[in-house]
Amino acid sequence: MPRHARCARVATVVAGLLLAANAFASDAVEAAESPLAAVDALFEAMAVHDTHKARQLIIPGAQFVVVRPDGTSALRDDAGFIASLAQRPESVLRERMWNHQVLVDGSMAQVWGPYDFHVDGTFSHCGVNSIGLVRGADGWRVAAVSYTMRKDDCGTLPVGKG
């Protein structure tokens, strides 16, 4: 086989591998962004006390667990969480996550990272969120949330108003 034909064949194989790697990387980015988009949508619903939107983003039976600084914890189900959003509808809630990690295996995902929480623009608490999601026909939905809660030892918080 002439040298130029071998070079053309190698170039074709390399181009194919690069295209496949790019498609795989693009799929991985999309898979990671989708669970994160569901978490962001939940935070947006929380901010305005939109219980209808929150309900759409949380599977029935989801569990919410807070771990306090003294080591005690409290468990709340999805109905309790939704009911808490309906309280004090005049307040503005803002939860921010950063430096998060997103792990995805098929239709299961985990979003983990530090967060801070503000009520009416005033810092309330911080901690780490661990949010489990599942993907169904209607997209990614929250199945479980565990989070630590503290008022200090928050590390460096991101810049911006709470």
CATH topology: Nuclear Transport Factor 2, Chain: A
Radius of gyration in whole Å, from Cα? Answer: 21 Å
- The CATH architecture name reads Roll
**Total of domains:** 1
The averaged pLDDT comes out at: 83
The poorly predicted ranges are 10-32
Strand content: 35-45%
Oligomeric state, counting identical vs distinct chains:
single chain
List keywords for this structure.
single chain; 162 residues; alpha+beta; Nuclear Transport Factor 2, Chain: A; 7-stranded mixed beta sheet; 3 helices; 7 strands
Structural write-up:
Helix 1 packs antiparallel against helix 2. The chain is built from three helices and seven strands; from the N terminus they run H-H-E-E-H-E-E-E-E-E. The radius of gyration is 21 Å and the shape is globular. The longest helix has 45 residues. About 14% of the residues have low confidence. Strands 1, 2, 3, 4, 5, 6 and 7 form a seven-stranded mixed beta sheet that branches. A hairpin with a 2-residue loop joins strand 4 and strand 5. The chain has a single domain, classed as Nuclear Transport Factor 2, Chain: A. It is an alpha+beta fold.
Task: Summarize the model shown.
The protein is of the alpha+beta class and 162 residues long. Helix content is 38%, strand content 38%.
Topology:
Layout: H1 3-47, H2 51-57, E1 58-67, E2 73-77, H3 78-86, E3 93-97, E4 101-105, E5 108-119, E6 122-136, E7 139-148
Helix pairs in contact: 1-2
